[in-house]
Amino acid sequence: MPRNCPGAPEDRIRIQHMMDAARQAIGFAQGKSRKSLDSEPMLARALMHAILEIGEAASRTSDAGRSRAPEVPWAQIVGMRNVLIHVYMGRRLRPALEDGDGGVAGASGDAGTRDEGLAS
User: Fold this and answer.
1) pTM score, two decimals?
2) Can you name the residues that pair with 119 across neighbouring β-strands?
3) Could you tell me if 107 and 80 are in contact, meaning their C-beta atoms sit under 8 angstroms apart?
4) To bridge 65 with a disulfide, which of 43, 61, 70, 82 should be the other Cys (CB 3.0-4.6 Å)?
5) Contacting residues for 46 by C-beta, under 8 A, at least 6 apart
């Protein structure tokens, strides 16, 4: 179904997928440090995959669905997905996360600082 289709019934499911992936990412990051992104490739890939899932679901949410949640930074979320999906081989996750418009915090609204959940 096109993204601009008013009242797309899939919006509720897509937003639920976004919430589920965000909760999982928070769980993955608990007790981890920024250095963990470099030393634990499984963590880095798990977080990247969760962010990709969130961005993909956001990109497919209709304009009508987006208008029901204007506080969600839809463009930044989709932008982060685009940055990650087009990362070149060999580029590390941390710079990719920091290069996006507003970084991870910008893509997560009220998440606080970029370091929240990944303490220094």
Assistant:
1) 0.70
2) 33
3) yes
4) 61
5) 24, 25, 28
